[in-house]
Amino acid sequence: MIMSNTFREKLAKQEPTVGTHFLSSDPDIPEIIGDTGLYDYGEFCAEYAAFDMPLLYHMARAGQCGNLPLMIKPDQKSESFWAQAALGAGFKAVLFTDIRTPADIVRCQQAIRPDTPENRGHMGVKLRRPALSGYSDQGPGSSPESYVQDLKSVVFLIMIEKNVAVENLDEVLSAAKECGVDMTQWGPADYGFSRGEPNMMNTPEIQPVEELVIRKCIEYGIHPRTEIGDPEKAKRYVDLGVRHFCVGWDRFFYQRNLLQVGESMQKIVEAL
What we know:
Elements: H1 6-12, E1 17-22, H2 28-36, E2 41-44, H3 53-65, E3 70-72, H4 79-89, E4 93-96, H5 102-112, H6 129-134, H7 144-153, E5 155-160, H8 163-167, H9 169-178, E6 183-186, H10 188-194, H11 206-219, E7 223-228, H12 234-239, E8 244-249, H13 250-270
């Protein structure tokens, strides 16, 4: 069956959204995230993870069990392949990295949108999970059109993280608007890296650039999304007009809790 894209539905209603990142290859993680009922999507940071195509299917099914739409963030050089593989597994959003030029945005748009005259995409009929019910005679609303609508509902995000993209920000955002980009995500680490200043993300000089990107995205009617490590960091971004957040990473949640539990237990055993 085709899972409803509740992430897209919230955007259509102009409601704020909250997601969280995960890097683990354990499909239990998206199901656990979904079972909380507190997140609008889970972002699988594939750019930093080890995975294969069957694993994407297991993750998507697990997310579906928890009523959690999944997003994939693929690596730049293989992004079209893995974006299409993830959509075939049942993912509902794609975050494309390393955008430099309007041509990059066009290529990303083509990877995920249906190959129809009006949608100008390159995504054809692939008999993977979403298409199976769409092309069967079983179930309510089964038709090729449901497959097309599912592709059109995929949430389209891009990273603004390269110096050249910031230098040509109006041109990039104009193309993003034209191609139907839903959200942008600022990337301070790659921005400094692309300038030859790897530590810039940890300096006060990064904030004016970040605020420029957020302000310009709002001007172009594209949602700026912000990644934060914990809720205490949200207020500054709310004051800047941000309404979409992705909070925390499973690896750091696990590390933090290991430290807390381990330190508490060390105090207990040291007193014995």
